[in-house]
Structures are given as C-alpha cells and as structure tokens.
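A favour, since you know our structure tokens better than I do. Just paste the record in under my message, thanks.
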Amino acid sequence: MEDPTRAAVAALSDDLRRRMYDFIRRSDGPVTRDEAAESVGISRKLAAFHLDKLVDVGLLSAGYGRPGGPRQVGRAPKVYRPTGLDVQISIPPREHGLLADILLDGLRAQRPQESGLDAALRVARARGHELGAAEHDRTRPGRLGPERALTCAGQMLESHGFEPVRVTPTLVRLRNCPFHPLAAKDPDLVCAINHAFLAGFLDGLGATGLCATLAPRPGACCVELGTNPTGA
C-alpha cells in the first residue's frame, strides 16, 4: 500500500471523518464547515479540525465560495469538495487495474487474423517493455549484469505487489500474485499475460542476462526471474 493510501485510510478510520466525507461526496456542490458539522451533529470548530485532516491526506480540497442560496455580504466561507482520490485497500496487494488495462488495450488493438490472446500478450509485453525502458532511463545503470539487473527490477516488482524474494544472487521468486483470484479462474490466460509483461519489462530494462520463466508454485506468482530457464 502506498503512503498516500495509508494516510487516507488512517484518516477515514475515524467515524466522524468518514461520515463527513461520505456527506460531502454525496452533495451536489461544495460544502461549508457549518453544513459538514450539522451532517454529523458536532460543533463547527471540531468539524473544521476533521475537515482539514481530510484535506491534508488528499481526500478533500478546500477553497472559498458561496455554495448557493441568497447572495450574502462579507467574506465567502471556506468550502470543501471531494478530490476524486481513488483509495483501494488490498492485503496482499492486487493489480486488477493493470490486468484490465492490458485486456482492454489488447481488444482495441487486435489486428486482423490475430487472436484475442495473442493481442493481449503483445500488449502485455509492450506495457512491460515501456516500464522497463522508463526505469532504465531513470536510473541509467549502464551495462547490467544479472545480479544488478535483479536489484534494479526490485522497485517495480514491489510497486506492483509481486513481493519479490531474492532466493539466490541471480534468482528472484515472486511471493504474491497481484492478479489473484482472477489467475485462479483462468491460469492459462492470466499467467501468460503476466509472463509476457515481466519478460517485456526485463527486455526494456536491458537485462539481457535474465529471463522470466513460468514456474507455478501454490500460493505464489507463476513467474520467476533468473538466469536459469529451469529456475533450479
């Protein structure tokens, strides 16, 4: 879970904050402190404290304006709006959005005489290659040997929820399948997409001494990264 998500979840663990946030999300326009306070039955001062906490973690934005009604004189009140921050919690981590993007892009980009599976695998490899090339450009690692390449790959693997484990200096196994439980419904499809994605990433990274190998293990990702195609 990324830090902004942790902060948002922590903020919403407070019942008053969560109820005010729900009220503001369901409102047709910006909400004042008085309106937010009234929605949960607390003082304006206490509401301001909770609202500012929600602003701090990125769930609300604050400004000044008149939500509506008769025109008033004097300074416009502070108002709050939802930011649209998407907060999702999954333990262990899941990446269903990435899988959905690959499948949708594969469907849109399917070529004549190309099967849906082949299109999805082509897109998955291209997506992985793009991430690998971006990481290579960011870190500028020079020529990559297998051990250093696996180290460079670690950040991407962690960020997508693979939970990499360095078994040997040149072998990384992935403890978590970020596409579970969809992988269990159709392992041939989902594992093939995952394999293509990770193979494309290594290629884009310039890790010529490594390969992604299908090596299914119960309760873990179906792919491992190493120098030996057998994963031994």
The longest helix spans residues 116-139. The mean pLDDT is 89.
